[in-house]
Amino acid sequence: MNQTSLPLQSIIVPQAEVARKQSLGAAIDMCAELAGFSLDKELQHALRVDKGQFSRWQSGQEGIKWDRFCALMDLCGNDAPLMWMLHDRGYDLGSIRKRETEVERENRELREEVAALRRVLGRA
């Protein structure tokens, strides 16, 4: 199995580490590092971008399109660059959270229903 075929879980990104990064390029490096990419070329290959373009993203000499930005974070299983951008714009990373998906909502509601039934049946 190669890196792109592994289903990545969402990786926890330490907020303090994000805040220490000085640039978006450093946050992109952190994103890749947290995912276990040790060489830029591994990530370049997985994203299908050439070395020059990837280097320009890292140095800030070239912007990155939203779809490529999302692909990078999805591939790496974390949102470090997005978190860096939010922090850089003055947002408190501790108070931002993802919306609950439909599946997560259904799961939560079912857990609550099971807990209520257990209370009613005396099986807490």
Protein architecture, described:
By secondary structure, the protein is mostly helical. The chain has one domain: 434 Repressor (Amino-terminal Domain) (Orthogonal Bundle), CATH 1.10.260. It contains seven helices and no strands.
Distance between the termini: 44 Å
**Strand proportion:** under 5%
Structural class: mainly alpha
Whole-angstrom Rg = 19 Å
Principal-axes shape call: elongated
Average pLDDT reading: 86
Low-confidence regions: 1-7
Total count of domains = 1
Largest sheet: none
Order of helices and strands: HHHHHHH
CATH topology: 434 Repressor (Amino-terminal Domain)
CATH architecture: Orthogonal Bundle
What's the total helix number? 7
Question: Can you tell me the CATH class?
Answer: Mainly Alpha
Number of strands: 0
The helix content is 55-70%
